[in-house]
Amino acid sequence: MSFTKSILYIFLLSIVSFTGFSQGFLKAEGKKIVNAKGENVLLRGFGLGGWMLQEGYMLKINKEAQQYRIRERIEELMGPKQTQEFYDAWLANHMRKIDVDSMKRWGFNSIRLPMHYNLYTLPADKEPVAGKNTWLEKGFALTDSLLAWCKANKMYLILDLHAAPGGQGNDLNIADRDPSKPYLWDSEANQEKTIALWKKLAERYKDEPYIGAYDILNEPNYGFSNPDEDKNGTKEKVNAPLRKLMVEITKAIREVDQKHIIIIEGNGWGNNYNGIFPLWDKNMVLSYHKYWNYNDQASIAHIIKARDEQHVPVWLGETGENSNVWFTDAIHLLEKNNIGWAWWPLKKIGANNPMEIKSNPNYDEVVKYFNNGGDKPKDSNVYSGLMELAIYSRLENTIIHSDVIDAMIRQPFSNETKPFKPNLIKDKSILYAVDYDLGKNGRAYFDTDTADYHTSTGKRSPGNRGRIYRNDGVDIVKDSTQYEKYYVNHIEKGEWLQYTVNVSQKGTYTLKMNTGADNAGGRITIIIDGKVVAKDIVVPNTGDNKKFATFEVKKLALKAGKQKIKILTAVGGYNFGYIQFVK
């Protein structure tokens, strides 16, 4: 696709996706989601994983990683009062108006709110009067604030019951399930509370057009017919209890709210719709979830088939946790098929999302203790580490990953490359290897291992093996000898990196290449604006691939202004730190 055509395509998609945002309630019309004017609305959003409901992996905790166990273990270290202080600070800092404002500015138009029921009501076994519902203001107040921020930005808010009373499956972390207590499925009290919560939410938000939909039960994953051998319900053929509960929730909502879309999800983490059809309401959307598989038409064939047979819209309610290559390919596939999406998550401790929450040494000790045991950290250090983490969750304290945003919003519809940083080149300027251009694999860079497709292949392939700094296929690690410095490693034959530079003064330059290698086998070729200017240059042996030294490539003519420099690996096996330009 040419640059002109790609810009036109983006413009047309914008008309389809963003028009009419003050045009009343969203609704299902045939196989499309439309506004009150009947205009197609393509949802582009993020799920706020980690805010109301913490999953351990987002906090680097991989043992007993349900939120209730994380909280219990924090209480054991520093007591209930300080633990409550942390959770209050977490909820206050993790999501604010600045986050929603930024999402709108970046190009997103919707938010999926993963709700934990315990912010809205008491657990059934803790109700003062059995069978009654105590309503808690905390969750509703947080939701009201988020809705106000969405309205201010003309963005849709989709309510998602992520942790239902008792938990909706055997994937314990996603629903904060306590396995010592009754499931949602074997407790009438839990089911009644779930239904009542949705009715309460519908009563509160029935007249709010910026509530986009009610996603009534996230990722059911329970084998009703054979719970021992089909724990997560991927092979379930009947799904009768799931259908029954969703019908009952729908009925309760419709008693007070006739306007909002109701989104349903199949069993097996949202994808198993056996026994769910026919649908029972005229304003419904089917959700499915998609992780770590190929981004081809076959990967969405099941949900396209359901859309056609039921004549109903579909929405990808959750996906992500992969590389930029995967993100770009997935979004291109989805929007080509008029399927809106909500990525997961907006922020966490980790780099493959728009915002990365930074850790701190005291919190790292808490994580080490939770995961590996050993000596208990001091309660004062635990408190300091957790409160600092809560403050670090504020947008202005996170690391903003512009490469992730670019891969989601621009790259699905454009082959154009853009500089990652301004890269103004003067005498003795340094260009870091990790600051290669923004763009698709094969356009801004080329790497042989770009994404994780293990659902399709059975083999994990992480893309960036270092999982740091950027989220493309390029392998990046932190330099342990220098603060906040990074370098490219695992460089293989045929891989390359492109840099758009702006040279301040025309002239002849020496390029000082900073590399590390434990052999003398590496070779590079330098290409400027498509022309080879230096070929098969030997990368010297420094004795250790983590020991860096510079070697010189002399007498390279650079014009003034912008040009593209490509560093092509003819033979790999070296690490790459930076280029210094000496006039």
Automatic annotation (TrEMBL):
Residues covered by the CBM6 domain: 447-582
SMART domains in alphabetical order: CBD_IV
Classification via PROSITE patterns: CBM6 (PS51175)
Domain of life: Bacteria
A single GO cellular-component term on record: cell surface
CDD domains in the record: CBM6_cellulase-like
Single GO MF descriptor: beta-glucosidase activity
Keywords, sorted A to Z: Carbohydrate metabolism, Cellulose degradation, Glycosidase, Hydrolase, Polysaccharide degradation, Signal
Protein name: Glycosyl hydrolase family 5
Originating organism: Pedobacter ginsenosidimutans
Keyword Hydrolase: yes
Family membership: Belongs to the glycosyl hydrolase 5 (cellulase A) family.
GO biological process: cellulose catabolic process
Gene3D superfamilies: Galactose-binding domain-like, Glycosidases
Alphabetical list of InterPro entries matching this protein: CBM6 (IPR005084), Cellulose-bd_IV (IPR006584), Galactose-bd-like_sf (IPR008979), GH (IPR017853), Glyco_hydro_5 (IPR001547), Glycosyl_hydrolase_5 (IPR050386)
